Amino acid sequence: MTELSNRLRNYRVSAPTEHPVSPVICNEAAAEIERLGEELKRFGPGYWAVVDERNRLERGKAILDERDRQDARWGPQDHLLPTWLAILMEEVGELAAACLCHKFGSDDHPELDWRKEAIQVAAVALSMVEQYKAEDNATE
Description:
The chain has 5 helices and no strands. By secondary structure, it is mainly α. The protein folds into 2 domains: 2-41, no CATH class; 56-139, no CATH class. Helix 3 crosses helix 5. The longest helix is centred in the middle third of the chain and has 31 residues, at 44-74. It is flat, with a radius of gyration of 23 Å. The model is unreliable at 11-21 (pLDDT under 50).
């Protein structure tokens, strides 16, 4: 925190920019970062491990919810690997488009949400693994 706040305090706009940042704003931001850093130390590393685990569980639940949604919409899926790859790449393409729209801003596709697309990619990959795991179990 201290390194970041010091860098902000020493920040100077060296060339004309579209959004110049004043030294006053940098100093205020640096002070706020320093204050937050001290406040966050109270929680200790164990707190952040719990928060990270909770976030991971929430993301995992979102992927499983998407798997349920896909099953409800498409029914059981039984594909050859090339077909699975085509389905997965279609989802990856949608994720790429959503990331580009997010990064560069686009009103063309406001429905694209990179987080939702990433969850769909994970859910399709999970579906693919589930099918092949079931086949592996059937042959054992």
